[in-house]
Every structure is written in C-alpha cells, then in structure tokens.
TrEMBL record:
It comes from Limosilactobacillus alvi. This is Ribosome assembly RNA-binding protein YhbY. The gene is yhbY. The keyword RNA-binding applies. The keyword RNA-binding applies. Residues 1-97 form the CRM domain.
Length: 103
C-alpha cells in the first residue's frame, strides 16, 4: 500500500506524541533488528526509531535498509528520528490502518 500525502500527514500527526521505541547504535543494521521492528509494528502499526550518536550509519542508510528488507514504510524523517508505518495483519490491532484507509 503506497501512502498518499494526506495519509502521511495523518500518520505524522498520530506519531507526534510517540517516543522512539527502537534505536540504531554501534551494532548497526541487522536482519534481526528488522525482524524486531516487524514484530513491534504488527501490534502498534506506527513507531519511531532514533539513531544514537555512536552509530556509523545515517538516516538515509537506515531508511533505505528498512525499505529494502521489509514492507515497512518510512513516513517521515526528522533529524535522527524516523517514523515507521506498517498495517497490522490481525484485525484487533488495525486501529490506525483502518483510519488511514478511509483518508
């Protein structure tokens, strides 16, 4: 599902109050880290990821890695923080994706 402008704006507004759940540190990006992101997004649908000061990768690298190795969509990047969205597979966790589909 490719997000349109209004849908991204809605998701950015929903993510405004969230704190980053995951961080990218000196270990960098691994398939295990992406699998953990997928697991968290299956229950929450919208999360933030921050890049620590000691990481060797930059925001563009993280965005590219996530989009290549999963079906997670990067909604926004603000400084060293990324906002990620993925519709949940189970209907009981599909709160945000139902609202996004209506927009």
């Amino acid at each position: 599902m490719e997000l349109r402008g209004k849908q991204k704006r809605f998701l950015r507004a929903q993510a405004n109050h969230l704190q980053p759940l995951f961080s990218v540190g000196k270990n960098g990006l691994t398939p295990t880290w992406v699998a953990q992101l997928n697991g968290a997004l299956d229950r929450r649908e919208l999360i933030k990821v921050s890049l620590l000061q000691n990481t060797a990768v930059d925001v563009a690298d993280v965005k590219e890695y996530i989009e290549e190795h999963s079906d997670i969509q990067v909604v926004q990047t603000i400084g060293r923080v990324l906002v990620l969205f993925k519709p949940a597979e189970k209907p009981e966790f599909q709160d945000i994706s139902v609202q996004v589909a209506k927009i």
